[in-house]
Amino acid sequence: MSTSPRPDTVTDTGAAPDPDFQVTAWMHLAGGWVHRHPRAWIRLGNLETRAVGDVIEDVSVDRPIYVAGLARAGTTILLEHLAGHPDVASHRYADFPFLPIPYWWNRWLSLVPGAHEEARERAHKDGIQVTSKSPEAFEEMLWMAFFPDAHDPAHSSVLGRKDRHPDFETFYDQHIRKLLAIRRRRRYLAKGNYNLARLGYLHRLYPDARFLVMIRDPVWHIASLMKQQALFVAGESREPRALEHMRRVGHYEFGLDRRAINLGDGALTERVTALWESGREVEGWARYWAAVYQHVADTLEADAALAEAALVVRYEDLCGDADATLRRVFQFADLALSDPRRARLAEGLHAPTYYQPRFDERERALIEEITAPVARRFGYIRT
Question: Which SUPFAM superfamilies does UniProt cross-reference here (predicted)?
């Protein structure tokens, strides 16, 4: 599918497919192979580490940068702007499906003549053009390999400073170092929406990490979330491989297998799920938005060191005052950015024009009632 640009192929159903959701046969088969055998691929990743030990011996994870936020908060566009920096390495679309062996896989890709690629709009239909070399959120595959319950709404997904998972931590650190070595870069950059539940844990692993937390006005945010849900349900219904692909890469935000992440309140997670299943989309998303960002606000408030390492970026500021916001973001991430380069990046940032929230008065009032207490903690004040 366009979440991983490849040539089109035939689909598994007789219905006319949505070309933006098609998945090639090789990607479907290879992705399934990796997904079904996580332990084997962990062992293979460890074998790769031993094989390239001399290459990564002097490579360290220096001030990693984490972009996180509820989907549709602007995380992708911020990722793309940061990933263009010459010091930064991130996962790319081409890293799928053999993500657990980044060094060997990327060495192989470098030896294969690449066909000319035309950038194409991703399946989200939000104007973001991608190629196989575009940055993408793929490290979730590593989390799922070690934490099989990570996306089970019945289990809390929260990881904090006190949590210890030595096997994962070793593999994860070695994986990042291999990625930095093969890309010949100094800084690791990751977009991971689910990392909102792991901020304290990641900060323990990397005390010098920088966290860029994206948030968006709840009315616009919920409108965008609902738009994407309808789009992905339609696309996955016509292309079954797309649903499997989304599961394999750990994207459960939208579609036929949408799942609310459990942030430690199982009853609230069940309530959100029940609202969605009963068709009460507006209330379900409003309660989920409030739950996610209340968790973020509480986590930062309770952890002074983490709060100092985190910068909350409002989508409206990124679009409405792009130059100043990008200056703040890059300075916080400790990435040098020239004034002309920043100005060019800022030119392409603007509020969406391809849709508008279409809530009636009752729905807007419901969103306001549910989200206002949390929204105020992030500076959203209704007039």
Answer: P-loop containing nucleoside triphosphate hydrolases
